[in-house]
Amino acid sequence: MRTGIFAALGFAALLMACRGEEPTGPRRFDAGVGSAALDPALVKEGKAIFRFETFRDQTFWTDTLKLHRVIRTSVSPTAALGLGLKVDVLALPTSVKRALRRGEIDLEDPATTVTLLKLGAVVGLVGKVDQDGLLTRVGTTCALCHSAVDNSFAPGIGRRLDGWPNRDLDVGAIVALSPAITAEQRRVYRSWGPGMYDPRFNIDGQNLPVVIPPAFGLRHVKREIYTGDGPVSYWNEYVAVTQMHGHGRFEDPGIGVSIDNPPDIVSHKLRPLRIYQFSLENPEPPPSEFDPAAAERGRRVFGGPARCRECHQGSIYTDVNSGILHRPGEVGQDPAYARRSATKRYRTTPLRGLWNPPQLTGPYFHDGSAATLEEVVEHYVRRFDLTLTPRQKADLVEFLKSL
Q1: Contact residues for 63 (Cβ-Cβ < 8 A; gap 6+)
Q2: Where are the alpha helices (DSSP H) in 253-291?
């Protein structure tokens, strides 16, 4: 069954853990950790790939799923924004922005959505519109799930924030619009909800969606994705071929996947794509969103009685660079998702951009089982039988908000 879309570059158990084990999995991809020269030409090339490259996945989204027909007849801008799609304000001509402010554009008309696609303004979707204004092709890009906007023009309309996870995006509801899927598939897709996606559903048929994670702050992390199966380019290729359904090849015997969809237009784009992702730094936490004095106290709790530093090591707050992955029971996480991976374990997530309203406010853990940072702290207090006062817990939350 080939009915997935974009997934994630991954993160897993969020705070403390104990003993781990060496990761296994594919080694052929260059992780580029700490040594990636951010060549401006490669960054520019990778930026274009991240934002606009579909890897010719239109053969799936158009020819198989027929989503172009649904969009041009049923998806108005209001409906698109309701599904979590974003609009790049910098792609809009001044006349269009002026008309939007004056309320002169019909946001209930699917033809307006087609016009936005023609302008290249819908983040993560690439559409081909003919001379009669008919949408004839549509495809997806990395930016669909891994870019947000700053809402500077209106909610859902603003400047791109590349690398930020789109936690408003209801991927499943978008796929469920297709007339080509079965009723059972539609039921599964509709069950996911905003900000959630299952990158294995079309591989093994299980339904275990995970939180769409950020694609920023990756430069010094050896192994990306929740279960540490491989570095950034491993996951980029996995997603491009198996989820976006682009043209290329992905093979990993560890998860029983071998897909060849020629011609290969993915592999030679992995390096610049990775370099651009490595250029995306963690966002600065808004100063108004945390108490600096409490965060400083929380930093001491983090490294002391909370024992977070045992696994969230160094400046990137993860022990995966030391070759450690954790069995699900060690960190109190559901083993079901890990069992679908090559490693059967979870990595310690690098702590990055945990709190930056309105785009980044949770949920947390791979499955979104903690709605708030407070719930994250309580999870590990119970798991490791920690003795923390209410003030220490609150201070720890403020520290996490400051990262």
Answers
A1: none
A2: 270-279
pTM: 0.92
Q: Give dist(CA 114, CA 103) in Å, integer.
A: 18
What residues does 158 pair with on adjacent strands? 88
Q: Which two tokens stand for residue 28?
A: 């052929």
Q: What is the pLDDT of residue 30?
A: 64
Q: Which amino acid is present at 29?
A: F
Residues 301, 387 contacting (CB under 8 angstroms): no
Do the beta carbons of residue 260 and residue 245 sit within 8 Å?
A: no
Across the chain, mean pLDDT equals 92
Q: What is the DSSP letter of 143?
A: H
CA 42 to each of CA 29, 124, 219, 326, 346: distance values in angstroms, whole numbers, following the listed order: 18, 20, 15, 35, 31
Give the closest residue to 164 by CA, choosing from 227, 225, 86, 91. 86
Residues 6+ apart with CB under 8 A from 373: 354, 355, 362, 364, 397, 400, 401
274 contacts 45 by C-beta, under 8 angstroms: no
Residue 196 token pair:
């959630």
Instruction: Dump pLDDT digits (tens) for 99-156.
Output: 999 999 999 999 999 999 999 999 999 999 999 999 999 999 999 999 999 999 999 9
| Residue among 210, 167, 296, 193 nearest 14 (CA) | 210
Confidence of residue 398 (pLDDT cuts 50, 70, 90): very high
> CA 98, 84, 3: angle at the middle one, nearest 5?
130
Distance CA 140, CA 101 (A): 28
Q: How many CB atoms lie within 10 A of CB 38?
A: 12
Assess contact for 195 and 165: CB atoms under 8 A.
yes
Let me know how long the chain is.
403
Whether 1 shows a pLDDT value over 60: the answer reads no
What does the CA dihedral 354, 359, 362, 363 come to, rounded to 10 degrees?
A: -140
3-state secondary structure of 128: strand
Confidence category of residue 285, pLDDT binned at 50, 70, 90: very high
**The pLDDT of residue 391 is above 50:** yes
Which two three-digit tokens encode residue 75?
Answer: 């998806």
Angle at 97 between CA 94 and CA 103, to 5 degrees: 140
- Strand, helix or coil for residue 116: helix
